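Thread: Newbie trying to understand structure tokens

Hi all, I'm a second-year student working on a class project, and my supervisor (Dr. K.) asked me to get a predicted structure for one chain before our next meeting. I've only ever worked with sequences, so writing a 3D structure as a token string is new to me. If someone could post the tokens and maybe explain what I'm looking at, I'd be very grateful. Here's the chain:
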Amino acid sequence: MAPLHINTQRPTAWGLVAMDLKQLQERLQGFATERDWQKFHSPKNLAMALSVEVAELLEIFQWLSSDESTKLDSDKLDRAEMEIADVFIYLLCIADKLGIDVVRAAEKKIALNEHKYPSEKVKGSAKKYTEYD
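---
Reply by user tm_fold:
Sure, no problem. This is what the structure looks like when written as tokens:
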């Protein structure tokens, strides 16, 4: 396997997304501050809240077949949209509290996964990287 190289330079399109994310994080900070909720927003509490929201997203898909899960009715799709927003919001809040740039972190993780899962070796398989020789 070739040595892992992580590019820390953001492509221009990601730079715009990162700026939008920072503005969204600032808006979320303001929302919590106006309500005096910052005192509740420790990384631990936010991670717990994130877990609850992920469970609420999972609940929408509970008991659906794989095929049904790709064809949600408008009510379930609206609920999924709101739960995905909650998950995203809590994730951004945790990242903000910990000083993590989510775009840079995602870029690093993708690069790591490209290294751990080279397409020529794993194509069409769902095995974990530790299961390949």
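A couple of things are worth pointing out once you decode it. The helical segments are 12-34, 43-61, 66-69, 74-98, 102-116, 119-122. The chain has a mean pLDDT of 89. Feel free to ask follow-ups in this thread.
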